[in-house]
Amino acid sequence: MLDYSFLSATVYYVLGALPMTMFLTFIPAALGFVFGIILCLIRLKKIPVLSGVVSLFYSFFRSCPLIVLIFLSYYGIPKLLNYMFYGGIRRISVVDISNVAVALLTMSLYSSAFMGEIMRGAITSVDRGQYDGAYSLGLGEGVTFRYIILPQALRIAVPNICNFCIGLMKGSSVVFAIGVIDMMAAAKLQAETGYRYIEAYLLVGIMYVILTFIIQALFRGFENRLSRGYSM
After folding, report:
1. Helix-strand-coil split of the chain, %, nearest 5
2. CA nearest 71: which of 177, 185, 181, 184?
3. Which of 16, 67, 71, 153 ranks highest by number of CB atoms within 10 Å?
């Protein structure tokens, strides 16, 4: 039987960690979107050297599990700072850096690799005639991209961005490995204090499902709003 008194007590504890889960979902997604557009433009323009660097960046961050990237950043950043500023002498350790900042940085870079490819696919899906029409009207390349190409590409990319954000929200649960308390971490800690693992994990699972429906609804509304100007 489920312990409903434990569930009622745990729900408030888990909800207290909800802001951290949302923070580590939408801030990295937003930063990744901005940086991802820059990366995809480098790929599309085939800028020498930089295009190759971006390809390597994509390959690394899209191939490694997020938990591996989190650990590499958590243990690697202090070592890198020690080599940069103290000649390799150990002055900075993991306790001297913010675990939330490490999670934010890593997840933002992770997001940019995926967002860049999402936007690259969306931009290349826009009809080439849109460029030709804009240029024939005397619009410059920057204006054409900002006001004609990007809005259409964004409309195409919304479903994939939505799916990525949902995956990122679920993937953010790995930050507990470096001591960040998100919803999953709160549920695990509460389960260990009451030895009620089924109740705790069932509760957090239901909360993830509810959040997934909310995110889908938000993106569906955003997609409908973008599509109004293209409806016949």
Report:
1. 85, 0, 15
2. 177
3. 153
| Residues 6+ away with beta carbon under 8 Å from 196 | 3, 6, 10, 190
The amino acid occupying position 216 is: Q
Q: Which residue has the tokens 């888990």?
A: 14
Question: Which tokens go with 76?
Answer: 């690697």
Question: Would you say 197 and 2 are in contact if contact means Cβ atoms under 8 Å apart?
Answer: no
Q: Under a CB-based contact definition with an 8 Å cutoff, are residues 70 and 174 in contact?
A: yes
Dihedral sign from CA coordinates of 86, 87, 90, 94: positive
- Other beta carbons within 10 angstroms of residue 152's beta carbon come to 18
Torsion on CA atoms 12, 16, 19, 22, rounded to nearest 10: -50
Q: For residue range 116-167, what is the model confidence (pLDDT) as tens digits?
A: 999 999 999 988 888 888 888 888 888 888 888 888 999 999 999 999 999 9
**pLDDT tier at 77 (50, 70, 90 boundaries)?**
very high
Q: Which tokens sit at 60? A: 């690394």
